Amino acid sequence: MAIVSFHSFKTTGPVPLASYMRMCLTGDSGGYYTGAIGQGRDQFGVEGDFVTSPEISQIFGELVGLWFIAEWMSQGRPSQGVQLIEVGPGRGTLMDDMLRTIRRFPAMADSIEHVFMVEASPQLRDAQKKLLCGPDAQFTQCDFGVQSNGRHIGKPVVWAESLKSIPIEAEKVPFIVAHEFFDTLPIHTFQSAPAAVTPPRPSSTTSPGGSDKSTETDSAQAHPSPPPSSSYEWREMMVSPTSPAAMASAQAKSKAAGREELAEEFQLILSSKPTRHSRHLPESSPRYQRLKHTPGSVVEICPDASLYAADFATRIGGTSSVRKSRPSGAALILDYGTSDTVPINSLRGVRHHRLVSPFSAPGLVDLSADVDFTAIAEAATLASDGVEVHGPVPQADFLELMGIRERAEILCKASGAKKDTADGAEKSWKRLVDRGPSGMGKVYKALAILPENDGRRRPVGFGGDVAPS
């Protein structure tokens, strides 16, 4: 049974795709990540809807932790003011493995003031608290939200409902990780179409004989000329309810074909005229502007992704309003998406580890779309002159340069693992670096936002090494 109802659509009419995604994922009344799945239901893992990299192998989180340790070393080993921030932390598995790794480097662990978990879901916040702070840990109120004492490095773990709840402070050193976060942010989809022609209003004059004499606009109104070939505009793809009759027909065809498919309760339609989003968002970058005059061109744009990237860059590099004596910190983004093209038709739904229509069972299906890494890089560098961007690089390259193969061998030897355990561990890490057409090592990518250094240093995992401090 769908959680997102038809009622709001009956009131407002078709809504932008981004609005639909936001209602389905984080809506107050039954969003996928905010309670709709029901008590005791877990989105993650074998029993849930999908498995993430940290759930596949502990090595993933360990290597991400090592990456931040390397950055901390390369930036002079700051002794205080370090913030560890994760956006969209899921069950907390990634941060748990990161902190367990950082604990082995006491100087860095001591430099951390707070561990921030940016999480909107009360259910997920509770699961994260149990993992990071212990099953009996309690929340206490703090300036940023709620907090509890972490069990790994003894520092406060703070939960904030949004990144805006964490002040941007010039003297802080923010280390930010975003794993499979950007792909869940709402997207707008636009299609290029011939611009609508508004015919001139007919004017009438009275002839000397007293009869009305219409101008040539009468003919033009009856047979409007097609728009010039260069006259195109962006139209927005909107989400509208599917009619009950169409749903019944689709289900009947599915049943006749021997398929069990969820009914598509909603559908995408093209707006009949420009919207406020289509007038502005596709004009925000030359990448989209160049596609406007190709009929039928489709672009997906995620404004929230650009806002988050700009926030990361501001925290790291500073701006005219946030003046840092020296840029510091780093952001690591790991997700799937395109590195040199604009995403199109990438919206997908997942339920029980199977691809399903994103317009079926809204609120019960996970929705995601390809990440536009180029747009993220543009937003970061435009937001702050104090940052530079590295990547994206395939996840396989990143993890192999970070030493995933060597770490897997050490784990198997240290644990004296039985053959079936060792085989399982090997299968797990190889899954993370699979370079096949749809393999995680190829589809997923890593991008880093670092303090500007005029290209003198590349970070580890991106072709560089730890810089001497």
Structural overview:
With 469 residues, the chain is an alpha+beta fold. It contains 17 helices and 20 strands. It has helices at residues 7-12, 17-26, 53-56, 58-74, 93-102, 106-111, 122-133, 217-222, 244-256, 276-280, 286-289, 303-317, 373-383, 395-402, 404-415, 419-432, 440-443; strands at 15-16, 82-87, 112-118, 140-141, 146-149, 156-160, 173-179, 188-194, 204-206, 212-214, 232-241, 266-270, 298-301, 330-338, 348-351, 354-356, 366-368, 371-372, 387-394, 444-451. The strands form 4 sheets. Strands 2, 3, 4, 5, 6, 7, 14, 18, 19 and 20 form a 10-stranded mixed sheet that branches. Strands 1, 8, 11, 12 and 13 form a 5-stranded antiparallel sheet that branches. Strands 16-15-17 form a 3-stranded antiparallel sheet. Helix 4 packs across helix 5. The chain starts with 6 loop residues before the first helix and ends in an 18-residue tail after the last strand. The model is unreliable at 204-229 (pLDDT under 50).
In whole angstroms, how far apart are the ends? 58 Å
Relative strand content: 15-25%
How confident is the prediction overall: mean pLDDT?
Answer: 86
Which secondary-structure class do the elements indicate? alpha+beta
Number of strands: 20
Radius of gyration: 26 Å
Q: What overall form do the CA principal axes indicate?
A: globular
How many helices? The count is 17
Helix fraction? 25-40%
Give the oligomeric state of the chains in this entry, treating copies of one chain as homo and distinct chains as hetero. Answer: single chain
Keywords: Methyltransferase, Mitochondrion, Transferase
EC number: 2.1.1.320
Protein name: Protein arginine methyltransferase NDUFAF7
Family: Belongs to the NDUFAF7 family.
